[in-house]
Amino acid sequence: MLPKSNRHLQKKGKQVTAEEKSKVYNFLKTASSWSYGYPSPTFKEEPAFEDDIEIPEEHEEIKAQEQVQVQPQISQIPAEQNSAEKVPSQGATLESIAAKIALCKNCVLCKARTNTVPGEGVKNPYVMVIGEGPGEDEDKTGRPFVGKAGQLMNMAFQGLGIKRQEVYITNIVKCRPPANRVPEQDEAETCLNYLRNQVILVKPKVIVLLGSTALKNVLGKEYSITASRGKWIEQKGIMYMPTWHPAALLRDENKKIEFWKDLKVVVKFFNKSGVEDEK
Ligand code: URA
């Protein structure tokens, strides 16, 4: 199926766009990887697909306009009272926030860290992903979600037509908690201001909250991940989708299906993917 914005294009014979080919490829890759339980050996580097049909420039403009219309009011995100820095200081960038995080000694997590893990990705993405905190692999590399849980998450996103490079990924805390324990309240609160500023600068269309720590620290202690997952929550003009943390999927196979379904709701919101619903 063509994305909504391209549905006016008349297809002749078996003509398909590069985007469609990529989606089918990634869907099959994910299905294959999920059945193997590890990255599929059959599907490795994605080939450079080409369009069979040309998308006229005027239609690209329509697509851009549609994207602008669904932009929620990220500027309304609340800045915490008592926080040292309520809004990004003038001229703040994601890089300058990362530089501050690299020097941060605001909580005990700085003591055992190898690297800080500020987050990575693009500005103005469809999706910003917020996890709990770096694990061992993330601490070693300084990059979020690169371990087993991250690989699983990447596969799910890819299968739904979203590449890792198209999202922004970060965590509640930017330093690894010892032995991967849940961050303490004071650690999370101290670190939240970096996250607030990242959200303001990244301007995602929706935010996916991975697991209970992300949900409770971003939206409030009254939320439970079991009851909230898969349901949109709108707060201050921002659309949030809570779902399982990918590490939970590694422990409980049944959660994989629910995780996949929750992400599909996100993708459907933007009509970005041609992946069909399960019957
Ligand atoms: N778990 C998280 O919550 N974040 C990461 O970056 C990696 C694992």
Map the helices and strands.
Blueprint: H1 18-36, H2 57-69, H3 94-103, H4 109-112, E1 120-121, E2 127-131, H5 136-141, H6 148-159, E3 168-171, H7 185-202, E4 206-210, H8 211-219, H9 225-228, E5 233-235, E6 238-243, H10 246-251, H11 254-269
Parallel strand pairs: 2-3, 2-4, 4-6
Antiparallel strand pairs: 1-3, 5-6
Helix pairs in contact: 1-6
The H-and-E topology, N to C, reads as HHHHEEHHEHEHHEEHH
Quick one: how many beta strands?
Answer: 6
Q: What are the bound molecules? A: uracil
The largest β sheet comes out as: 6 strands, mixed
What is the spatial order of strands in the main beta sheet? 1-3-2-4-6-5
Task: Evaluate the radius of gyration.
Answer: 19 Å
Shape: globular
Helix content: 40-55%
| Poorly predicted runs of 5 or more residues | 1-13, 54-86, 273-279
User: How many H/I helical runs?
Assistant: 11
Describe the fold and architecture.
The model is unreliable at 1-13, 54-86 and 273-279 (pLDDT under 50). The relative contact order is 0.15. The longest helix is centred in the first third of the chain and has 19 residues, at 18-36. The chain has 279 residues and is an alpha/beta fold. Helix content is 42%, strand content 9%. Helix 1 (18-36) packs across helix 6 (148-159). A 6-stranded mixed sheet has the order 1-3-2-4-6-5, sandwiched between helices. It has helices at residues 18-36, 57-69, 94-103, 109-112, 136-141, 148-159, 185-202, 211-219, 225-228, 246-251, 254-269; strands at 120-121, 127-131, 168-171, 206-210, 233-235, 238-243. A hairpin with a 2-residue loop joins strand 5 (233-235) and strand 6. The protein starts with 17 loop residues before the first helix and ends in a 10-residue tail after the last helix. Uracil binds at residues 131-135, 138, 144-145, 147, 149-150, 171, 247.
